[in-house]
Amino acid sequence: MDIDVLVARINELARKQKSEGLNEEEMAERAKLREIYLGNIRSNFRSQLDTIEFVDK
């Protein structure tokens, strides 16, 4: 899933939560989308750490 679409949907659900609340299905979708988003962040961070090279002075 495209990260921009993912973030847009998470934000849409957050706005709906603040205004009128979410039903059970929407809360489950929100939890799933958040987990996908966090997994993406963890993966990107891990790949950045893997590319770091230590250089002695």
Question: Which features characterize this protein?
Answer:
2 helices, 57 residues, 0% strand, mainly alpha, rod-shaped
Describe the protein.
It is a single chain. With 57 residues, the protein is mainly α. The chain is built from two helices and no strands.
The SSE order reads HH
How helical, in percent, are the residues? over 70%
| Overall shape | rod-shaped
Oligomeric form: single chain
Strand count, sense and barrel status of the largest sheet are: none
List low-pLDDT spans: none
**Span between termini:** 43 Å
Helices, by number, come to 2
Indicate the structural class.
Answer: mainly alpha
Q: Topology of this structure?
A:
Blueprint: H1 3-19, H2 24-50
Helix pairs in contact: 1-2
Q: Summary?
A:
This protein is mainly alpha-helical and 57 residues long. The chain has two helices and no strands.
